[in-house]
Amino acid sequence: MKTPYALIDLNELVRRVLSDVLNLDVSVIKPESSLINDLNADSLELRKLMTVTGGYYVK
User: Fold this and answer.
1) Is pLDDT at 55 greater than 80 in this prediction?
2) What is the 3-state secondary structure (H, E, C) of the chain?
3) Domains identified in the chain, total number
4) Interatomic CA distance for residues 4 and 24, integer angstroms
5) Residue 59: which pLDDT band, with cuts at 50, 70 and 90?
6) Rounded to an integer, what is the distance from CA 41 to the centroid of its chain?
7) Residue 57, φ and ψ in degrees, nearest 5
8) What residues does 57 pair with on adjacent strands?
9) What is the pLDDT of residues 11-37, one digit of tens each?
10) What band does 5 get if pLDDT is binned at 50, 70 and 90?
């Protein structure tokens, strides 16, 4: 059973809504602050995606 959106913090809420919309597992959606740990990322593509998703990217 999924946790109701009203019972989770805002950061987690955004991740879960994005996972529902993008039909992806929530574990692959990382906050923008996780980007610093992803040294192999294509920064231009991630910037485009973060613009679309409001600061989140799919890893």
Assistant:
1) no
2) CCCCHHHCCHHHHHHHHHHHHHCCCHHHEEEHHHHHHCCCCCHHHHHHHHHHHCCEEEC
3) 1
4) 18
5) low
6) 15
7) -135, 160
8) 30
9) 777 778 888 888 888 888 776 655 544
10) low
Q: Quick check: pTM over 0.70?
A: no
Among candidates 23, 16, 18, which has minimal Cα distance to 50? 18
Alpha carbon 16 to its chain centroid, in Å, reads: 8
CA distance 26 to 4: 14
> Whole domain around residue 20: which residue ranges?
5-58
Q: Which residue has the tokens 């692959």?
A: 28
Structural tokens at position 24: 């992806």
